[in-house]
Amino acid sequence: MNTERRGGTTPPREGRRIVAGSATGLLAVGAALGAAELVAGMTGSVSPVVAVGDVVVDATPAFLMEWAIALFGTADKVVLVTGITAVLFGAGAVLGVIALRRPVLGYAGLAVFALAGLAAVLLRRADDPWAAAPVVAGAAAGALALALLSRSARTARRPGREGRPQAPADAETAPAQVGSDRGPGRRGFVLTATGVLVGSATAGALGRWLPDALGGAGARSALALPAAAEPLPALPSGTDLGVPGLAPFSTPNADFYRIDTALTVPRLDSTRWRLRVHGMVDEPFEIDMDELLALPLVEADITMTCVSNQVGGDLVGNSRWLGFPLADLLRRAGVQSGADQILSTSDDGWTCGTPTEVVMDGRDALLAVGMGGEPLPHEHGYPARMVVPGLYGFVSATKWVTDIKLTRFADERAYWARRDWAVRAPIKVMSRVDVPAPLGRVPSGDTVLAGVAWAQHRGVAAVEVSVDDGDWWEAELAQVPGIDTWVQWVAETALEPGPHTVRVRATDATGRTQTSERTEPIPDGATGWHSIRFTAE
Ligand SMILES: Nc1nc2c(c(=O)[nH]1)N[C@H]1C(S)=C(S)[C@@H](COP(=O)(O)O)O[C@H]1N2
Ligand SMILES: [Mo]
Predict the structure, then answer these.
(1) Which of 46, 394, 419, when mutated, tests ligand 1's pocket best, judged by the most ligand atoms within 8 Å of its CB?
(2) Rounded distance, CA 3 to CA 16, Å?
(3) CA nearest 378: which of 273, 285, 459, 286?
(4) What separation in Å is there between the alpha carbon of 298 and the centre of ligand 2?
(5) Separation of 387 CA from ligand 2 center, angstroms?
(6) Which of 137, 222, 387, 465 is deepest in the core (most CB within 10 A)?
(7) How many domains does the chain have?
(8) In this structure, how many other beta carbons lie within 10 angstroms of the beta carbon of residue 310?
(9) Residue 490 lies in a domain
(10) What per-residue confidence (pLDDT) applies to 73?
């Protein structure tokens, strides 16, 4: 029952007002966010928190961005979204306390945040008729929660008025209620609060998973990919040496690295997806998913690499992609002369500039819909993305792509090019040691060294290894289906017990050997030899 204490141990009135008020404010913010997520999920429009985050990212100077990325790595998005949410909850707590005395100020505060959210979503998605819906729903839910909770909190704080029984005659219970402003009133508040909390959490979770769970026509689970018009043969045997610890030749979708600026993974609906091809073209057009899937699709084995990959890093992965040749799509539009840049834009506003000549030179540049035998995972661009063999992802691999504009490099700069990264960025020849693991322990005697090497669209001609600064010798290369993928390499050597170092370098098919000079990823990709230390015992 009531755990009322008396006299000096009762918190002062002011303290209770602060507790009830801040709880009210926190819960009202929760209700607003939950409702906004639910409506965003149902209407397929952008979440206001994400939209505000995008605005913050866009407004952040490059040096601060780099600092944040250096500090938080790929968790930078989580940090930003958490930060925005924390600011909202902090402001909510303060407003909740104020609102207990001056309700109008509480609603005014809510309105200010709603307007900021509205500005952010409209900035991001002026063309989406549903853009404002999540903010409106969030503001309504927030106001309702604020009204319910502050009424309940005020009731709880007013003994002898609404919701409080008159001091009962029963001597047993009377002491517990003398001077108390709790009892049923407080219970009412706790009940209301619990209801609001559960409701908001449920709404938020539903908003995130509803579209997929419902499995509507546009959900990823409902998308049936056609077979390629000319399917590729199975991978040649011997592409995967099966050495334990060595990256598999085909990266499973679930293990494929993920790099993007999206604050939360965009979850698009394929029935609402459209790609617009326009700019310096003779015949601009739009294509939807039904039309795209009706075209003769092709398959290609392509290894993607992120320019941010450090020497020895794992921001690289290989898959069999299904899609339509980008060059054919552009030919349909009729590219005008001088349009040297393909400026592609994702649903969430990220932009990417790709040299037109590279896409048109006959390589398997794709508008991809499938990856590893499945529709693209949401994380990797569902329902459609670009993949261009030989170019780092930031200048070629737009996920959730909805707009392709033919333009000139001299006229427009894409997202990373505006932030001091290169404009043209072919993938550099690179090799990595996977086995032994860094600082690993292996049995002495005959030892297996293994790894991967890549030089997409040129091909890897040779991989050399050197142990303990000794002579370079050539590793054995596994099979590859073409020049656009990485290749596994393996080398065997006899080792004395003790500490050892192995280093590796690759040479591409144009005769260019990986340089020993160590450079950072910015602006156009890291260079240097990968070496690892290990112990034979
Ligand atoms: N929409 C969008 N597409 C994007 C990016 C992005 O930030 N947003 N990042 C690019 C970068 S830098 C890389 S390396 C690849 C990574 O693709 P993945 O996450 O499927 O591995 O996506 C590219 N496509
Ligand atoms: Mo990247």
Answers:
(1) 394
(2) 15
(3) 273
(4) 24
(5) 12
(6) 387
(7) 3
(8) 14
(9) yes
(10) 65
Give yes or no: residues 69 and 110 share one domain. yes
Decide: 39 and 207 in contact? Cβ < 8 Å.
yes
What are 253's two structure tokens?
A: 């979708």
Quote the pTM value: 0.80
Please give the number of the atom of ligand 1 that sits closest to the Cα of 256: 21
Are residues 451 and 403 located together in one domain of the fold? no
* Angle formed at CA 388 by CA 413 and CA 391, multiple of 5 degrees: 65
The domain spanning residue 346 has which CATH number? Answer: 3.90.420.10
Residues 6+ apart with CB under 8 A from 456: 302, 303, 305, 389, 390, 427, 483, 484, 485, 486
Q: Is 198 helix (H, G, I), strand (E, B) or coil?
A: helix
Q: What is the pLDDT of residues 97-108, one digit of tens each?
A: 999 889 999 999
Question: What CATH number is given to the structural domain containing 517?
Answer: 2.60.40.650
Are 265 and 291 in a shared domain?
yes
Q: Are residues 404 and 476 in the same domain?
A: no
What average pLDDT score do residues 491-517 get? 97
Q: Using one digit for the tens of pLDDT, what is the confidence trace for 280-290?
A: 999 999 999 99
438 domain residue, yes or no: yes
Give residue 131's domain range.
Answer: 10-213
β-bridge mates for residue 492, sequence order: 448
Please check whether residue 253 is in contact with residue 381, taking contact to mean a CB–CB distance below 8 angstroms. Answer: no
CA dihedral (251, 254, 259, 262) positive or negative: positive
**Is 527 within the bounds of a domain?**
yes
- The pLDDT assigned to 159 comes to 54
Same-domain check for residues 385 and 494: no
Q: Count other C-beta atoms under 10 Å from residue 98's C-beta.
A: 16
Pocket of ligand 1 (CB under 6 A): 256-262, 304, 306, 346, 350, 380, 393-394, 397-400
- Greatest CA separation for the chain: 99
For residue 305, give the ligand nearest its CA: 1
Closest CA to 342 of 355, 361, 330: 355
- Per-residue model confidence (pLDDT) at position 74: 62
3-state secondary structure string across 431-447: EEEEECCCCCEECCEEE
Output the CA–CA distances (angstroms, integers) from residue 253 to 47, 256, 280, 334, in the order listed.
Answer: 26, 5, 35, 34
Alpha carbon 309 to chain centroid, angstroms: 17
Same-domain status, 55 and 143: yes
Q: Is the same domain home to 48 and 183?
A: yes
Q: pLDDT per residue over 200-253, tens digit each?
A: 999 988 887 776 666 677 789 889 999 999 899 999 999 999 999 999 999 999
Question: Are both 354 and 448 inside the same structural domain?
Answer: no
For the chain, the average pLDDT equals 89
Q: Which of 391, 419, 447 represents a domain boundary (last residue)?
A: 419
Which of 366, 386, 419 marks a domain boundary?
419
Within-domain flag for 243: no
